[in-house]
Specification:
With 338 residues, the protein is of the alpha+beta class. The protein is globular and about 75 Å long. The protein has 17 helices and seven strands. The two termini are 42 Å apart.
Amino acid sequence: MTQALEVLANKGETISDKEYSASLQAILLHDIGHAPFSHCLENFFFNTSHEQISLQFMKDLQVDETVTKIFEDKYSKKFLHELVSSQVDTDRLDYLTRDSFFTGVSEGVIGTERILKMFSVYEDELVIDEKGIYSIEKFIISRRLMYWQVYMHKTVVGADCLLQNLLKRARFLAQNDALLEKEFPITNHLFYFLKNGIREINDKEALNHYMLLDDTDIWSCVKVWTAHKDKILSLLANKLANREIGHLEIKTSPFSNEELQQKYDKLYKEFNVAFSRDEVENYFCSSNELHNKAYSFDDRQINILFKNGQIKEIYEASDQLDKNFLSKEIKKYYYFQI
């Protein structure tokens, strides 16, 4: 964000000290509302998005009004919001490079420095100079590849399902007094949500507990739950603790009800009636959709600024990315079981 602001300032864009500071605060805090394990537990704690929780925390921190206006896209200079949240924002430029490095997936390597230097503002909107078009093409394709190879990798999706089902079981037990705070060293912050379920964002007590939650609250419970007397909870905890993620099947067409019933029947028989059919279906398997879209025409578009002052959307300016390619949403369907 610092680099982007400096590039725009050097190109003649007026950015006051207050706007500069507010933009840095907005990008620093924009994801502060994320749950432990990020998107995996997005709707486990609150019935709203992490963006709304981030906004609430910003207000609770009493940041300057300029910060929240930039974050909410209510500030007069629209391009500042686009640096925080858009199809080519500084967050995406950062995490694609970072995640590519730490996972070793070279497809995520993009010309971050090059793209930042190509940032310009035209009629109060963020645009990319003509010379940066190939870097943007690579950025869009890299993001698409990273989703399939990293963010929606079979192991990642399977681990997400296992953790979700584990916490769903813990919440069921807590709400039926079969999981007690004093029985195991569960932090009171996690136990609050296990006992009380999904909360409203205006619940101040819930927010106070939520802000003190992190991955370690959950990991510590996973380890101690491996010895819990509830067989379902201990089974799932042992699977996760020992990285026995389970099996994930991915298809390009939806699983029919008949297919799912056959899988449920087979899984139920594997446990030799040690658990009820409802328990097997609720905690030992999951099915859902995966979505991957390279570009959204519903979102603020990526515009290319040519030397003659002409503006074209990326699909018009590119000789590689036509509208059909960019508008195509890849949808896949998965079935997971332990």
